[in-house]
Structures
1.
Amino acid sequence: MLTADGGGTRAVTTTLADARGQTISDIPRRSAARFPGKTAIVHRDVRLTFSEFDALVDKVAASLHEEGLRKGDTLALLSHNCWQFPVINFATARIGVILVPVNFMLTGGEIAYILDDCQADAFVVEDTLVPVAEAAIAASQGTVRIRSVIKLGDTETSHHWTAFTTWTDSEPSAAPDVRVGDDDVIRIMYTSGTESRPKGTLLTSRSLMWQYVSCVVTGGMSSDDIEVHALPLYHCAQLDNFLSTDIYLGATSIIVDGPDPDALLRTIERERVTNLFSPPTVWISLLRSKLFDIVDLSSLAKGYYGASALPLEILQEMERRMPGIRLWNFYGQTEMASLATALGPEDQKTRGGSAGRSALNVETRIVDEYDHPLPSGEVGEIVHRSPHATLGYLNQPEKTAEAFRAGWFHSGDLGYFDADGYLWVVDRKKDMIKTGGENVATREVEEVLYQLDGVAEAAVFAVPHPRWIEAVTAVVVPRESVELDEDYILSHCRTELAAFKVPKYVVVADSLPKNPSGKILKRKLRDTFNSLADS
């Protein structure tokens, strides 16, 4: 049959592809067929079943098509967490439009760069963010031709913006039948901007679908889960490791506006939440909340953390105060869509701080500067092979080639495998401190600082120094009602660290700068304290 000539062969090939396909756009429909009346999404006072969610995806996809968007066009989305976010995520995929989630903390100029880089055809914006969106459009090259506003507050917008409700409240209409392949780009995720300009990471259904399977198996997820989503959905960790994976499984997702600790604890109690993902900074804020020992957290069975390893002292505190919870450390990058390795519950006590083993569909190595594999115990760059991996960086072929040299994705992280094959992340290449000719891993120093009972948060980084070239510097945030001084902190460090690793400077501060995902912004700390050695 497959050797037939001309159009017959093409027709059969197309029919086979239809029968065998599964892309991101299929997920809501297939989950709705399995769990039509089950609650899929909760946000504020909106509760959607899987059947209702899929119907909204179809409506928005059809409306976008009627607006003139076609396969390969781009739609930028600027919004805080809301139920509309996953609807747009799947609606764009259903018609092959490329979704570009945008960090809501960016300035108009920074957003303009993204709009121009991806040549955005449409822009969907939360009402409170319309002023910065309009500044971005004015500063851009002007490719945006469709504007829609999501009404989450009371902000009035001009007539240039179409209400998102005109798409969701339209008469039922099936989305057009658009053929979207496994390796067609359906998402551009911009890196968090630790470099001068963010890079647009190209993700496909192949990347994301394989990653969802890895999350389910590696993370012990199931359709019975009730998960709260508090971190920003513009970030692939919350959107793809958890929210989209829940919709894929048929689990229930509770979307909240942000990671306010008291509100988050109340939500866990009210909705009987079973799963929560948060970076260490948010887990720490929950432990420090006055509500922590008051609310009923007995439903919480699975906890996930990422962005950085949990300090061992915090991990031990969580085990004491939440004895019923099982923990996973998810490690990865946007370019891996984003899971690469994980440390499971059975290893938290014995290997706390490790990034674990490769996820189901990932192969990981440690290589030297010449891309030669290194034996266990030796520090080198962490590299991966996986169908999770990005297709590359938008408009940046040189950086794509560099990231994928020798057939592996180069993470930019430094680490090593122990004798049992567990991965230990030492540092980012750019965060490793070279002081007086010696290498200092910032994470090692941070672990020592967290041993002090009065330390709530700590960050270690380098500042320029005339003698040491780079000086180890620590900014420490004390717990509430605790006083810390530099001498006390340094005395502790001297008993636990080699002399060259002890911070040359210690600053006690009220808070640490973070992005909306809870990641500490060491770049801002370096900028703020760049001249410490001059004083």
2.
Amino acid sequence: MTFDDAVATAAGTQSAATSTPEVSGPPVLRATGLTKRFFGNTVLSDVSIELHPGQVHGLVGENGAGKSTLMKILAGVHQADEGTVELAGEQRRFTHPVQAQQAGLSTVFQEFNLLPDRTVAENIYLGREPRKGPFVNTAAMQRDTAELLDGLGVTGLEPTRTARSLSVAEQQIVEIAKAVSYDARIISMDEPTAALADHEVELLYAIVRRLLARDVAILYVSHRLKEIFDLCDTITVLKDGQQVTTSPTAELDEATLVRLMVGRPMSSFFPDPVEGTEPGEDLLVLSGAGNGYVDGIDLALRAGEIVGLAGLQGSGRTELVESIFGVTPLTRGTVTVSGEKGTSGAPTTPRQAIRRGLALITEDRKAKGLALQQSILDNALGVVRSVFPGRTGAARADMPGVLSSMAVSARALDQEVQFLSGGNQQKVVLARWLSTQPRVMLMDEPTRGIDVGAKHAIYELMRGLAADGVGVLMVSSELPEVIGMSDRILVMRDGRLAGELPAGSSEEDVLALATGAAS
């Protein structure tokens, strides 16, 4: 069975993740009154949490709510200023992550820590390799790794493969396998699906179920509320470092959870168009456009509208926006960009696209959207310096106001972007493109991996752009987002547009076109 076969098998049993067992017996972990201060600033205040064997405890809240601080205290990265942590009834205080791992508490952080040129087996047993005399027992290490992966229901992932050759989903699995290899009784998972495709998420669900069957307790952090409701038995909500509630999942719904997290009702989550916003002239028109990735594309994007681009993974959504932007140029059909017709009107490079008024928010901000070790200001001015050097002075003068209007939370403009939260990083990406004064904004998964508060801020920005006459073409895998923000919805399937739906269409309507059920 290949890795993809394992994914397909996992997809067939996903529904079992929704069961909620009774709490029985004492908790395997009990944290009481945890408080943490940094430089006199309280970032976590009197937070208590219990984890039970064979159950998933969800931890949710906006960026800055204290989730990461709580996880790092449990992992031994930070030490609490106040409060206690008990494992199986015994009070423990970890001063190093290795101590937590040896005690059976492992953490899978959002940022992977794999060595790219080491094998899967070498990464899992790094620093504790089995030995035969003075030498590493490579055969035993590979055998143990194969058994570990088999126990998680993962096949087709060879212990001898290098980490560099792995997909994001496979890297995530290796991180989980490494946590399990410590005989973990508790595993904390920080945004484990942030960079995974839908079918890969289903495999993660299957792995979680296997861990629960072993009576492992899981602390699960995610901004994807569907996963929280699918997987978690209990949910703790943090806000501004304080514990808002800990409740059984069955007693909550998405609307209530959003209100507890951000202090506003879900009815206002997707903002309405700014009053007076009306569709204007065509800014981008494609007729019969195609290349090696997409074909027969007919679409029009008008000033002042937000058009959602939906479809299953692999349907060609990202390929389409990258083609429009000149990453993989369109080679046939008729393209009109800001009044230029013919195949010559299709941008053949990103630089050309930028000069014609297009901007592209990529789906992977860390790999393609930011220079993580550069400052906020250098990132925000990166494109305008390269393409419109004459505008750099004005853009520099305006940038503090632009970042402030988007409520970017940072110490100073010279702070390195890598130290910002995901939501603030995404706002810097947006500021980077706003400095080019685009007429067409291509947005690929603009809210992936950020909290609900930051999502709302980006939705407000999108509405503001439309009110200013910008055309927005938005790719999203989240159907509520597509439906809540789009004036029209285009659905892709197999590299082609399968159809168009009006605003307010149902998820069933979108999926019917995406899967071909509506044919």
